[in-house]
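Fig. S4 source data, part A: sequence.
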Amino acid sequence: MSDDGLVGIVLVSHSAEVAASVAALAQALAGGGAQVPVAPAGGVEGGGLGTSAELIAAAAASVDRGAGVGVLTDLGSAVLTVKALLAEGDELPPGTRLLDAPFVEGAVAAVVTAAAGADLAAVEAAAADAYSYRKV
């Protein structure tokens, strides 16, 4: 992997609307930084709820700039689908990682960190750190 490009981010949700909305929120909150390649992979082909390996693989390919791809997921089968794709080894771009992070807060942290030009390890750490964000 080269570090010529920015880390790409894929947001996998059971809902196309949720994935697209979180992508838009994260990009808007990244502000004036570089435009991070972010792709939602929500729902299944045809618009229903669920997860689609094909949509996830296509989203990952679309954001790959050579610096790695971080994938955040919402719920159970989304995690299992990404893990299965990673285990297959040839469906996702080299350097793709499933990030263990809360979906919304982790997505924002990942995109903001990637916009600063950070590498995949730093993006992963920032996303995971979102578990510690306290609300009260």
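Fig. S4 source data, part B ends here. The chain has a mean pLDDT of 94.
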